[in-house]
Design brief:
By secondary structure, the protein is mostly beta strands. It is about 5% helix and about 55% strand.
């Protein structure tokens, strides 16, 4: 007993002291009352000390400790943060080719206030302090880098393109300086690549890695390498880097489409939330003017319900290539030239399989539903085919279950970003002249794309024997912010028996390819002084951007002249068992549940089309022009001051922007669909051998009108900025900043192009069973959008209590105006000279003035034996602002993209040979756009990642990682009164990596 007490009394203070040291560095020491901590006085090393080994932190005088690896990288990052005049966070690679995370965006999410969006489980886009990713300016070596995805172009950079092994460091500017490019209201992120003079001659690295995911059950490779050389005189050098990666992403997701308030047209009930309160913006609520009645006679009136509930398995086979070629030349002392070429390429071979239960079955098959506690939200619906001889199984209508609708989408696409630039620096005495020029261009979109839909029923004539159901039961339920579906157990077997038909009206192709290009040239002059004014910087920059968008489709034709589409051919809806997968899709590891998941076999179906018909034929739409130009001139002046323990800068940037070009409205008139019986479009049409109506040729039933728009606008902005830092003591720093910033509307909104569809009564009569509704529908840009503007203010305190350690906090506020909100709502619009109601119109609108304010708290500390931690917390409070479209209020919304809380924490242990690191990230609820008058909210999301490495020898290292250890899923709901209005749920899997890295 006494030995036990002696053991505790002697060792406990040691353990408590070590624990408290670590916790003090991570702002948690207050949770350990009664424990004491003695802090030794240290001297902060100077950043960039040439006496320190490469990638090693200089000694702090405590036994000449030299650290390397991960600890050295975070200490170097902290040193740059401390020396900066503005509010800046920095991420530094551990070594050549060794970035802290597998993806640059994944590493950025560790920075206070940063939220990322994921694509296939990988970080793709970055937002800062609660503002959307389009408001974050991403640059490569100080200039814009173009990226283009499939679909509409975006200002937001897609980090899937950027190989992490080519990046040396990343700066995140949260406060502005006049010398920085405008365009990032949230912030500016500058990715810095390596240069030959930064590395030793003939140095580099090679890394080979394999990855495994629980949703694919595959092991796939990744290879990367970098080689750098310069001559002995360090006047000429070359660097080559490359990475190649093969990866299959499998995303399991559930979603809803188009929430409405369902109520009888004859006895309408006003929409309410779960508390029984009506909405102030009732005009923006989407009303479905029809209640529903079950087979048993129960009638439902006045409730929220989605138009469709879907489950999806998306398989993306990605091949990623990254290339860097850099040359450095010093013609004479004081003059350096650097030329770069970057190519980032992402090839995708994607198949999306979807099963959906739309509203089609409410007329004949609805047997009952379940509601939330308030009774205002439908949370489950069951549809069953009635017995033969009862209900609709006695009449002349087909009375066949159209669900689950089985949709498949196939695309081959490639995204390429090429950047060329030349940088020069000349220094003489106190003057430095820098210049740069370059071009960045990105293209993206499918080289081939096709989608198809089938129904599990067979109609070949009159009588029940010729109207066969392949599925007798369809049920969807919202379960724990996910979806569960139930179907007849014989569904898959019936598909193999040929009980199915292709829905030709939902089969076809439509692609959008985009290109983004920007040329730029700039010059900067810096004059240094021995006075309170440390230096003065002036500069000018010219940028000319161009956005192009091309649309079209692929067709198969049944005649030699290529005039009759196969979808318009009698018998084209007939299926074969080989058109479907022989077994239902399995390995549903998350995202949703279902009793069976049937799907198209797209390889077989496309092979059949290619063999049977003429195609695929690429049919471009040159009339659908979208050519927008943007010319920007900017000039700035900035004074950097320094006196004793006070430093900072003050400056003004003046920017002139001109946007012009041509966009096109595309108007579709769906006048009819089926051939008419005796010329009457409102009687049952003639039926073909596949049980479908005989379809009119597309040219006879659809009219497409292209209406070009010439648009131009110009505006000038004056953007002052001020940053100040005060070293109260050698280890205590107080900062302040104020600036005005702007962000231009997204490229897809620079023009007011609209895509509108009118469904005639005759068309709806033929397509009603497949969800067709009468009237106008569509989407479009909003050329009247104003640039997003904000005044932002920051005040912060940083205590560097130990080498490589900090405890700090920042208060921030953004007074924003004209922020942009995506909308889906019914609007009044002028089309062909008439004012019409366009239903479920998707567009963008400006919000009025709003405030985003909050606090960032952060800490970092490492104990002498290698145990360390990094933590940060961000709280962001945004006000609610009025949203207007064409001068009319359509609702209220917080700032889109804002999340109230963000928590990041990493704990690591590092020795000379071993590194272990665990990282935790949690994002609070995030605000999205408006649908049916209500905001979409992404649920809180948290994830744990593990990283480890072991050095066999000085130059050979084993690496291992587990991403999304917690198997977390991303979810979203509609409205802030409840999470019962389910929007989506997505699971991308847990992924493991194992690799070898060799440096030389």
């Amino acid at each position: 007993m006494s030995n036990g007490n002696l053991f505790r009394s002697s060792s406990a203070p040691v353990r408590h002291r070590l624990l408290c040291q670590l916790m003090l560095g991570t702002s948690l020491c207050a949770a350990l009352p009664g424990l004491a901590f003695a802090q030794a006085t240290t001297t902060q090393p100077q950043a960039g000390d040439s006496s320190a080994p490469q990638n090693a932190a200089p000694s702090d005088g405590e036994g000449d400790i030299v650290v390397t690896g991960y600890r050295a990288s975070i200490e170097a990052s902290l040193s740059q943060k401390r020396d900066a005049n503005a509010f800046v966070d920095v991420i530094t690679a551990e070594d050549v080719g060794k970035f802290p995370d597998k993806n640059v965006a994944d590493a950025l999410q560790r920075v206070p206030g940063v939220v990322i969006e994921r694509d296939g489980g990988e970080g793709s886009r970055v937002s800062i302090r609660g503002l959307s990713s389009d408001l974050t300016l991403t640059e490569l070596n100080g200039n814009f880098i173009a990226s283009a995805d499939s679909g509409d172009p975006s200002r937001s950079f897609n980090y899937l393109l950027l190989p992490a092994n080519l990046i040396g460091s990343v700066e995140v500017f949260k406060s502005s300086e006049a010398r920085l490019d405008e365009g990032g209201v949230g912030g500016v992120i500058i990715n810095h690549t390596r240069r030959p003079f930064d590395l030793k001659p003939w140095s580099g690295n090679v890394q080979v890695e394999g990855t495994y995911s629980d949703v694919t059950k595959k092991v796939e490779p990744s290879v990367s390498g970098l080689l750098s050389w310069h001559n002995e005189a360090k006047t000429f050098g070359l660097l080559l880097g490359a990475t190649y990666q093969v990866r299959t992403n499998r995303t399991l997701s559930a979603a809803t489409e188009s929430w409405h308030w369902w109520t009888d047209a004859a006895n309408p009930k006003q929409a309410t939330d779960v508390n029984g309160k009506t909405y102030a913006n009732d005009d923006a609520i989407s009303y479905w003017n029809d209640g529903v009645t079950t087979q048993g006679g129960t009638h439902y009136n006045g409730y929220w319900a989605p138009q469709s509930v879907d489950e999806t398995v998306l398989i993306e086979k990605r091949k990623r290539l990254g290339i860097q070629a850099t040359a450095q030349w010093q013609p004479f002392e004081g003059f350096n030239l650097t030329a770069n070429y970057f190519r980032f390429q992402l090839n995708g071979d994607n198949v999306s399989n979807l099963i959906k239960i739309p509203e089609w079955g409410y007329g004949n098959f609805f047997t009952g539903g379940q509601f939330d506690k308030s009774g205002t939200i439908l949370t489950s619906a069951t549809f069953q085919v009635p017995p033969d001889g009862t209900a609709c199984r006695t009449g002349t209508s087909p009375c066949t279950m159209e669900t689950p609708a089985m949709q498949s989408y196939y695309a081959r696409q490639k995204t390429v970003s090429n950047t060329y630039d030349l940088h020069g620096d000349y220094t003489h005495d106190r003057l430095t002249v820098s210049f740069a020029g370059g071009k960045t261009r990105a293209t993206g979109g499918p080289s081939f794309q096709f989608y198809a839909q089938a129904k599990p029923r067979l109609v070949v004539g009159d009588g029940l024997a010729n109207r066969v159901n392949g599925n007798m039961l369809s049920q969807w339920s919202f379960t724990g912010q996910s979806v569960a579906m139930q179907f007849s157990p014989e569904l898959q077997q019936n598909l193999m028996k040929g009980i199915s038909q292709v829905d030709l009206g939902s089969t076809g192709s439509g692609y959008t390819n985009s290109a983004i290009e920007q040329k730029y040239a700039q010059i900067d002059l810096t004059r240094r002084f021995d006075s309170f004014i440390d230096s003065i910087q002036v500069g000018a920059k010219w940028r000319e951007g161009k956005v192009e968008r091309q649309t079209g489709r692929f067709e198969w034709y049944s005649d030699a002249a290529n005039t009759l589409r196969y979808q318009d051919t009698a018998g084209a809806a007939v299926t074969q068992p080989a058109f479907f997968l022989s077994q239902p899709i399995g390995n549903i590891a998350g995202g949703f549940t279902t009793s069976v998941f049937p799907a198209f076999n797209m390889d077989n179906y496309l092979a059949y089309l290619n063999k049977t018909y003429n195609g695929p034929v690429r049919v471009p739409e040159p009339e659908n022009r979208y050519d927008i130009k943007e010319r920007i001139w900017a000039g700035y002046a900035q004074a950097n001051f320094k006196m004793n323990n006070i430093r900072g800068n003050i400056g003004l940037r003046v920017v002139s922007t001109k946007q012009s070009g041509v966009s096109t409205d595309v108007i579709y008139y769906e006048n009819d669909y089926c051939q008419n019986t005796n010329g009457d479009p409102f009687v049952p049409p003639p039926v073909g051998p596949d049980g479908n109506c005989l379809v009119l040729p597309q040219a006879q039933r659809e009219v497409k009108v292209f209406s070009p728009n010439d648009e131009s606008k110009r505006y000038t902005d004056f953007l002052p900025s001020f940053n100040i830092s005060w070293e109260v003591t050698p280890n205590l720093l107080i900062r302040g900043a104020a600036s005005k910033v702007i962000a231009r509307p997204g490229y897809g909104d620079l023009a007011g192009a609209r895509s509108l569809t009118f469904n005639s009564d005759a068309f709806v009569y033929d397509r009603a069973q497949f969800g067709a509704l009468p009237g106008w529908f569509g989407s479009g840009g909003n050329f009247n959008l104003k640039p997003f503007k904000a005044w932002q203010y920051d005040v912060g305190v940083e205590w560097y209590f130990h080498r490589g350690s900090v405890l700090g906090g920042t208060l921030f506020r953004k007074d924003v105006s004209d922020f942009i909100v995506p909308l889906v709502l019914d609007i009044q619009s002028e089309v062909a000279g008439n004012t019409v109601t366009v239903q479920q119109y998707s567009t963008q609108a400006n919000g009025s003035n709003a405030v985003s304010q909050g606090v960032e708290l952060y800490a970092q500390h490492t104990l002498p034996f290698g145990l360390g931690a990094q933590v940060n917390f961000t709280y962001n409070d945004t006000s609610v602002a009025e949203i207007t479209l064409d001068g009319k209020k359509v609702g209220d919304s917080p700032l889109v993209g804002s999340a109230k809380t963000q928590i990041n924490g990493s704990i690591f242990f590092e020795t000379k040979k071993l590194l272990l690191r665990a990282s935790y990230n949690r994002r609070g609820e995030r605000v999205g756009g408006i649908q049916s008058g209500l905001n979409v909210y992404s649920d809180p999301y948290e994830q744990v990642d593990l990283n480890a490495s072991y050095n066999f020898f000085e130059n050979l290292q084993l690496t291992a990682s587990v991403i999304n250890l917690t198997k977390s899923e991303e979810r979203a709901h509609l409205g802030n009164d409840t999470d019962a209005r389910f929007i989506s749920n997505q699971y991308t899997g847990r992924r493991a990596y194992l690799g070898l890295a060799y440096k030389f």
